[in-house]
């Protein structure tokens, strides 16, 4: 379906010059003179190559309809994720690069959502938050006020994050999968 270029959003899949692209980032730029345009960073679904494209805001682009399907993460096999359809128990192999840095947050039997275009996977979405253990956290410096900034810490999946001063090594915390940011202490 056609849509105006200024309606492009991250996560959408568009067709451009006979190829399918997933939109990574978009930004509307208004120069000092002349009309506004939209700059889009996108990745070719077949080759994985990234490119930047510019359109005038009134231009139209072909947006492809995506279908969402729920899967359960089983394991990673080289460069592919092995996902299981919870209804049919069929296994699907999906390239791990569709997840990017978020792959570190995959956990056994995690429910994931896969966006498909005509049966081809174009994106994978993890749950918004996961619970992970702190394996390394800087000690609190005496006299440091509670209002001071967060301290660095390392999660059990190897990802670095920042946590409030009261969080210590061994504690479990809730973390956002999109940016590895601290949400709260895990309950239970």
Task: Provide the fold topology.
Blueprint: E1 2-4, E2 13-16, E3 19-29, E4 37-44, E5 50-56, E6 60-64, E7 67-77, E8 80-84, E9 91-95, E10 111-117, E11 120-125, E12 129-137, E13 151-155, E14 160-163, E15 172-176, E16 182-185
Shape descriptor: flat
**Domain module tally:** 3
Helix content: under 10%
Let me know the average pLDDT: 87
Report the total helices: 0
- How much strand content do the residues show? over 45%
Number-wise, the strands total: 16
Would you state the CATH class of the largest domain? Mainly Beta
Secondary-structure-based class equals mainly beta
Order of helical and strand elements:
EEEEEEEEEEEEEEEE
Task: Give structural notes.
The chain has 188 residues and is mainly β. The chain has three domains: 63 residues, SH3 type barrels, CATH 2.30.30; 59 residues, Nucleic acid-binding proteins (OB fold (Dihydrolipoamide Acetyltransferase, E2P)); 57 residues, Beta Barrel (OB fold (Dihydrolipoamide Acetyltransferase, E2P)). 0% of the residues lie in helices and 53% in strands. The chain is built from no helices and 16 strands. The strands form three sheets. The protein has a six-stranded antiparallel sheet with strand order 1-6-2-3-4-5, with no helix packed on it.
């Amino acid at each position: 379906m056609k849509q105006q270029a200024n309606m492009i959003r991250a996560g959408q899949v568009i067709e451009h010059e006979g190829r399918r692209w997933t939109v990574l980032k978009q930004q509307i730029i208004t120069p000092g003179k002349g009309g506004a345009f939209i700059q889009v960073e996108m990745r070719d679904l077949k080759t994985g190559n990234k490119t930047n494209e510019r359109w005038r805001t009134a231009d139209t682009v072909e947006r492809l309809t995506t279908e969402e399907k729920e899967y359960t993460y089983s394991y990673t096999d080289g460069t592919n994720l092995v996902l299981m359809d919870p209804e049919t128990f069929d296994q699907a192999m999906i390239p791990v690069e569709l997840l990017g840095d978020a792959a570190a947050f995959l956990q056994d039997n995690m429910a994931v959502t896969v966006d498909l275009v005509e049966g081809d996977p174009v994106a994978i979405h993890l749950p918004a938050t996961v619970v992970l253990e702190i394996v390394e956290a800087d000690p609190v410096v005496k006299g440091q006020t509670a209002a001071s900034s967060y301290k660095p810490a390392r999660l059990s999946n190897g990802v670095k994050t920042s946590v409030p001063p009261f969080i210590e090594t061994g504690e479990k915390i809730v973390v956002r999968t999109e940016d590895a940011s601290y949400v709260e202490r895990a309950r239970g």
